[in-house]
Amino acid sequence: xxxxxxxxxxxxxxxxxxxxxxxxxxxxxxxxxxxxxxxxxxxxxxxxxxxxxxxxxxxxxxxxxxxxxxxxxxxxxxxxxxxxxxxxxxxxxxxxxxxxxxxxxxxxxxxxxxxxxxxxxxxxxxxxxxxxxxxxxxxxxxxxxxxxxxxxxxxxxxxxxxxxxxxxxxxxxxxxxxxxxxxxxxxxxxxxxxxxxxxxxxxxxxxxxxxxxxxxxxxxxxxxxxxxxxxxxxxxxxxxxxxxxxxxxxxxxxxxxxxxxxxxxxxxxxxxxxxxxxxxxxxxxxxxxxxxxxxxxxxxxxxxxxxxxxxxxxxxxxxxxxxxxxxxxxxxxxxxxxxxxxxxxxxxxxxxxxxxxxxxxxxxxxxxxxxxxxxxxxxxxxxxxxxxxxxxxxxxxxxxxxxxxxxxxxxxxxxxxxxxxxxxxxxxxxxxxxxxxxxxxxxxxxxxxxxxxxxxxxxxxxxxxxxxxxxxxxxxx
Length: 477
Ligand code: FRU
Description:
Tachylectin-2, Chain A; 2 domains; six-stranded antiparallel beta sheet; 33 strands; binds beta-D-fructofuranose; Glyco_hydro_32; glycosidase; hydrolase activity; Glyco_hydro_32_N; Glycoside hydrolase family 32 protein
């Protein structure tokens, strides 16, 4: 099925052509955000992985560049990983004092009974990230005898003065440390006993986040492959301590810490040492879901990244939770504010228009609400707030492509019971950029990301609940 051109989002990164998945090598360097990504240039399906490359001055407008890394005949395809700035040339790979180093997993297909071989490798760039050379002594971390060993994320740990590499190994995260970015020593392991309903962990990230009082915590993120029988949230996080060796969870909740309540937010990666205007780490994710990723409608390209989001923690009573908000460069762009009158709004349909609906429902612990965003006469994204179960849901079944995955008929549900225990006002900011809807609840304490596939552009908002206050703003790129 062909996705008509107007469905390409305008403030979300998409490739010019072909297949993409995870963001890789995210780094801010010399005034540009570099986004590398899992890329298969020869098809619109997942295949032998390369690292594609794009840059942006503001994380909104992107330019795509030449492929950064190609698979090689001896070590295989280029799976996910990260990038750092070797400012002091500790690696000795650079002649002067500047250079970027990328860490990736080499994935080599081998005949049965051996199976694939995944190992950690590096490549370096002497021209600020535009061309890359593979390190001749790859791999830098060899496979310890397991099938799934991948997705290295490297950070600098001030306290210990070491570089730290984390990689997933089955259902755990392995930690390594290094002084020169080339030789890596085992440092620790996390995860053996942790919420292991998922099959395999993928794409870890580790960072320090502050709560609203300025207290810092270490937060470890993972993406999870789950089985159809036992579905598991695509991404989860752990809050705790990191001593330069391993991570210890210190704030356990009775429920899994879900990063995003939608199906379509995966393999998120933070930008190396980049901070938003309010001094918070920034990340973005692949907005897709493996069970149907290879089936989504396409128009010669397939795959979208999420909005760039800044990350922090919110402390309430004895609990701490992740908060995500679009970076201000995104949210400040929205203008032409209007208020829904009689609970309806005609949405502009000019190419490149992105909508933002801010809905507020007073007395929300007692009253339910229902509203929809319509595309033409018969298709709509239906939003529902159920005050008895304290759940907010998106029904996107009317936006389902032909012959698509059954999962798409299921409601996308955010359980807001914890958040609503502290307020009586439901608030949600809904960003709609053609085929992607991101809902930020309250101050970003919960987020819900969903792909949608209407046959025509969204053109109206209709609320079926009188008490709902809705303001609208937009941006056209
Ligand atoms: C996550 C993932 C990674 C892997 C890459 C391969 O989406 O499965 O674990 O490195 O995609 O494309």
